[in-house]
Amino acid sequence: MKSFSTNIKKEKPYKCILCNSSNEYFTTIEHIVPHSLGNNFLTLDKGWVCDKCNNICSGFESRALNNSSLSFQKVLMGHKTKKGKQPKATYNHIEWFSEKTKKNSISIDLNKKKLNKNPFIKYFVENNTKAFIQLAHNKFDIDISKLLLKIGIEMTCSLSLNNSDNIDNAKKFILNNENESWPFLLIQDKGFQMKSLFGPSKFIHSHALASNFDIFIYENQTDELIFFFSYGYFLYAINLYSKNLNWLEELKNDNFKFVAFPIEFSKFSNT
Ligand SMILES: [Zn+2]
């Protein structure tokens, strides 16, 4: 296994790492991990992602951050929004929000009508916190795929960790508004041994951990680049190079338990 270190480049290429264009406007600083997940330090300066791509990304980013398993974790972690408001989310047709005074807790809008319709929330009420393992597939899974790929591409490009030809498919997938999907995993067991990408920089690593996230990159036996994003109690994984799933065998052999998303890939889960 190849390990990598952080040394984000300081230069401003004025060539977009997503669409490769130099002819667009570059007026925004790019948060590699979204700001509303608690990241206020891991950024790319103006000149890395063009305004046009930034705009496309903000569409799937806000859907993923407000309606998915990631949004649920965001609320649980309690990171405030840019405007200083408490986080909230809609996941599995339920409104989730956090309260100022309670850390690491989550509240739900217990609307009776919704309660009766939703098996997930019944499970929650009957079995307490175990419901958090009951992760449902939903239509926003595609937005998580895109967000994970975006973070992975920005992270690896800024560190020169990828072979740029190999991430062309992922870039196209992010930027084109197609309805096909790209598989990712939610790994249930976090007891794995991998070196944090931030490991060599104690300062950045401590900031990341304080913001409840961490990043790991792993090159598998067939030279695919696998990107791991840990956020709150969840660990996501996605192949940055292709939709190929041969890397799952390696995870299975190492006794990883995981659920594959979106739903058409659920048969590849190892639970
Ligand atoms: Zn661009």
Q: Can you walk me through this structure?
A:
With about 270 residues, the chain is an alpha+beta fold. The chain has a domain at about 80-135. Helices cover about 30% and strands about 15% of the residues. The chain has helices spanning about 50-65, 70-75, 110-115, 120-125, 140-160, 170-175, 200-210, 245-255; strands spanning about 30, 45, 90, 95, 105-110, 185, 215-220, 225-230, 235-240, 260. The strands form 3 sheets. Strands 7-8-9-6-10 form a 5-stranded antiparallel sheet. A 3-stranded antiparallel sheet has the order 3-4-5. A two-stranded antiparallel sheet has the order 1-2. Helix 5 crosses helix 6 (about 170-175). It is globular. Residues about 1-5 and about 125-135 have low confidence and may be disordered.
